[in-house]
Amino acid sequence: MYKVKVFVTLKESVVDPQGSAATKALQKIEFPEVKDVRIGKFIELTVEKTEKNIEETVHEMCCNLLVNTVIEDYRFEIEEVGAQ
């Protein structure tokens, strides 16, 4: 069994209106040291072991459903865990 953590962020070239709003709000509530915020998403998967390569499988999941690769980048971490 694997625990997979997928971190998705907007590509640097993509405007992040949610991040801009968060930046302004943080500065307004007295956090002037915050200069930029980029908002992303975190996805956690529990995946059973199969004969397929887990890294390849996760890449396929990300490209086919979890990530909009036109505007988002992603990275992931895989941890082998005991059966649950």
Structural write-up:
This protein is an alpha+beta fold. The chain has one domain: Phosphoribosylformylglycinamidine synthase subunit PurS (Mth169, Chain: A), CATH 3.30.1280.10. It is built from 2 helices and 3 strands. A 3-stranded antiparallel beta sheet has the order 2-1-3, with helices on one face. It is elongated and about 50 Å long. The relative contact order is 0.35. The model has no long low-confidence stretch (mean pLDDT 96). Belongs to the PurS family. Its EC number is 6.3.5.3.
Strand and helix map with partners:
Layout: E1 2-10, H1 17-28, E2 41-47, H2 54-66, E3 72-80
Antiparallel strand pairs: 1-2, 1-3
Which terms summarize this structure?
single chain, Mth169, Chain: A, 3-stranded antiparallel β-sheet, elongated
Unreliable stretches (pLDDT < 50, length at least 5) are: none
The major pleated sheet works out as:
3 strands, antiparallel
Q: Report how far the terminal alpha carbons are from each other.
A: 8 Å
Report the CATH superfamily. Answer: Phosphoribosylformylglycinamidine synthase subunit PurS
Q: What's the overall average pLDDT, rounded?
A: 96
Give the CA-based shape: elongated
Number of H- or I-type helical stretches: 2
Strand order of the largest sheet: 2-1-3
Helical percentage: 25-40%
